[in-house]
Amino acid sequence: MDDDILTIEEVAKYLRVSERTVYDWAQKGEIPSGKIGTVWRFKKSDIEKWVNERLSSGNKTPSSGNRIQIKNILSPDRIVFLNHSTKHDALLELAKNLSTAPQIKHGEELASEILKREELMSTAIGRSIAIPHVRLTSVTDLVMAVGISKVDIIDFQTIDDAPVRLLFMIAAAYNQHAYYLQALSFFSSKLKNADLRSGLLAVKTSQEAYELLIKED
């Protein structure tokens, strides 16, 4: 099987939904897919594009009573400056930082699942941004860490060929599906602001970055 072709199980694992949900979406034509005989298959690049379009537009993102407020899910000590040119090392360092949050009960599991997710499909969304994300039963509430890279991270397989410099890592409890998707959509939209992106890359301290992010939050 070509590495660029995914099964229902792999798509379900990536999207953190049930296999039945993916099957229903495919049947209804709501997700890019095709049939080989009687079996549904999904092109990796099509799914990645579909996910990014949903995140960027906010379309079909479940509503939640929890409004995203950055100050409730991020603190200055979870904004770190990275100096790694590979996504593996950058993700590990950021996951290590995020695991210090009280909401994270098993740091090793967090790092492992973040890497597994990235191997399945890139979390880069263009504009030098990546939003690695997981939902885990060992996470008690949604929380995040931010990585500002001083060097280009060159192996994220970005859709616009721009190397990643800003990473927003989000971890949520497994039962926070709606809030989790809302957070992904919120940051995808917020980071369309070119001034915010350039400002984050220019900051000298974590506190400066934090103040930029919570401005007008």
Describe the 3D structure:
The chain is of the alpha/beta class and 217 residues long. The chain has nine helices and nine strands. It has helices spanning 8-15, 19-28, 44-57, 70-73, 87-98, 107-120, 177-190, 194-202, 206-214; strands at residues 5-6, 34-36, 39-43, 79-82, 124-126, 129-130, 133-136, 143-153, 164-173. Strands 4, 5, 6, 7, 8 and 9 form a six-stranded mixed β-sheet that branches. A three-stranded antiparallel β-sheet has the order 1-3-2. A hairpin with a 2-residue loop joins strand 2 (34-36) and strand 3 (39-43). The protein is globular, with a radius of gyration of 17 Å. The N and C termini lie far apart (46 Å). The model is unreliable at 58-65 (pLDDT under 50).
Question: Summarize this, please?
Answer:
The protein is 43% helix and 20% strand.
Topology summary:
Elements: E1 5-6, H1 8-15, H2 19-28, E2 34-36, E3 39-43, H3 44-57, H4 70-73, E4 79-82, H5 87-98, H6 107-120, E5 124-126, E6 129-130, E7 133-136, E8 143-153, E9 164-173, H7 177-190, H8 194-202, H9 206-214
Parallel strand pairs: 4-8, 6-9, 7-9
Antiparallel strand pairs: 1-3, 2-3, 5-6, 8-9
